[in-house]
């Protein structure tokens, strides 16, 4: 039996007995998560903050943020808990003044040409002044990387993100691609397909599109979308259709996992899928303020760091509750794919519960920063200490 066949109430029990990492006295700093965020630009400093704050509230030990040079000081003032590396250089920087061949318009076709075939002086600059510095952070035993929130769409920044993403994908470490990272993948899906093995399920790569990003992604991989069906008022019909599209898109991207956000979030990887409907256990928040997706991604990143530690099986006795696991799925250990699906389940549940608690207190004035403050109490209500 698969974890996917468990009832919702059993999924939380399964997560507690498997991927949820205990806090043990012998642990050292970094073992509960060393997460890297690549995002944050002149226009968007909130997104990497909400994300970083959320993953720290979940219990991640160390959070690195690689952001645009101009966003660094602002981000540092938000929180001393985040380690900020302001290494990204955009085409607005004085440092690249006079470089030729960087697109000056918003044309996506020009941007794709630039990403495919960047002029050599730009490449040399990025390689020697930017990528090298980013690689020094990537090599610090990072266990999950998130690419995209608040990254923006500047050509030089996207080019740098493309190079870094390729390197991380080759390492096989878990990656979440969100927001402008999804824009990059939609412009150039080969970033994923060139780096991933078509034979395997690539659950370690999770894309977290909102409904607009999902449509863009489907178009990029030639999955045609019937907008009427995608926005159907009947939740069941809409979930079925979204799952169908997401499965096709996942297959065309070498079976990466997709967590499609919406009224119900839906997770798909290659062959398997699950509709994450928490409405029976959580009173829904009615606020749709920006930053809730970033908060979800932060919670998910920490859960994925634990799931990766669970798969390695070296940090704690992962078989301590194997009788529970065996009772639920007939096996003692989860597969990697099940670990990722369970991480998505847990993250969406905690996000919805945090939004619900924040909404109960703040109503119309609820903000993403309020949601972040309720992650700890929601976690405790759902999971315990
Ligand atoms: N405080 C901060 O720093 C924050 C920064 N952020 C950062 O902003 C950057 C751009 O991200 P983005 O999501 O605004 O861009 P994009 O995908 O172009 O969407 C644009 C248009 O699509 C629509 N639309 C969007 N969602 C929809 C939905 N669920 N359902 C239906 N329609 C939807 C809507 O257009 P409408 O149809 O309403 O006119 C919207 O205007 C990115 O870096 C991100 O990380 C955010 O994280 C928030 C907090
Ligand atoms: N109609 C809805 N009802 C309940 N929850 C929703 C609804 N739409 C989205 N959500 C939840 O809100 C969170 C953010 O989703 P959203 O679609 O706003 O993502 P996003 O656009 O990426 O967010 P961000 O503003 O951080 O970029 C997700 O956890 C999602 O499940």
TrEMBL record:
Binding site for ATP: 261-265, 284-293
Cofactor or coenzyme needed: Mg(2+)
Binding site residues for (6S)-NADPHX: 150, 210-216, 294
Name of a matching Pfam family: Carb_kinase
BP term (GO), one: nicotinamide nucleotide metabolic process
GO molecular function: ATP binding; ATP-dependent NAD(P)H-hydrate dehydratase activity
Occurrences of domain YjeF C-terminal (ranges): 12-382
Gene3D superfamilies to which the protein is assigned, alphabetical: 3.40.1190.20
GO terms for cellular component: cytoplasm
Protein's UniProt name: ATP-dependent (S)-NAD(P)H-hydrate dehydratase
Organism in which the protein naturally occurs: Babjeviella inositovora NRRL Y-12698
